[in-house]
């Protein structure tokens, strides 16, 4: 087991949002911003900014890591880029107030149509329909999830109809 693999998750956390140079087996070097370190395998996920403004992601396997050197700390702009890297673009476009308005409107419409719906989750942002389906922000048909495919399909159809109705009213 390498020195890197013996570190604790709290020690690995100190590398997140930092630009590092990783020395791996066979003298391979990798450089990038640490997104995360897997606590089981010690694998490092690195982000590399590209010239076109996008990011390239690479993984360095934990068993191959020999040394990790911190080069720089991320500024606020880089931290924001790294934090939003895997978030769908559509979700980033809505303010908290707008998401709250969308949630309330959809919830009211579902209740008006006699569909049991509750808010759930730590911040009450997820809608739960009949205890078997959830709708996450920004509350579109593709934001629904359920293990019951029939209910999933029907509720997605209802939401699609609701959104079409909203478009007609605008």
Characteristic terms for this protein:
five-stranded antiparallel sheet, four-stranded antiparallel sheet, alpha+beta, 170 residues
What this model shows, in words?
- The N and C termini lie far apart (62 Å).
- Strands 4-3-2-1-5 form a 5-stranded antiparallel beta sheet. Strands 6-7-8-9 form a 4-stranded antiparallel beta sheet, covered by helices on one side.
- The protein contains 5 helices and 9 strands.
- The protein is an alpha+beta fold and 170 residues long.
- It has helices spanning 9-13, 76-83, 89-92, 96-112, 149-169, and strands spanning 18-24, 29-37, 44-49, 55-60, 65-73, 117-120, 126-129, 133-135, 144-145.
- A hairpin with a 4-residue loop joins strand 1 (18-24) and strand 2 (29-37).
What's the quick description here?
This protein has 170 residues and is an alpha+beta fold. The protein is built from five helices and nine strands. The chain has a five-stranded antiparallel beta sheet with strand order 4-3-2-1-5. It has a four-stranded antiparallel beta sheet with strand order 6-7-8-9, with helices on one face.
Give the amount of beta strand, in percent: 25-35%
Shape: elongated
Topology order in helix (H) and strand (E) letters = HEEEEEHHHEEEEH
Unreliable runs:
none
The overall pLDDT, averaged over residues, is 91
What's the alpha carbon Rg, rounded to whole Å? 22 Å
Give the SSE layout:
Layout: H1 9-13, E1 18-24, E2 29-37, E3 44-49, E4 55-60, E5 65-73, H2 76-83, H3 89-92, H4 96-112, E6 117-120, E7 126-129, E8 133-135, E9 144-145, H5 149-169
Antiparallel strand pairs: 1-2, 1-5, 2-3, 3-4, 6-7, 7-8, 8-9
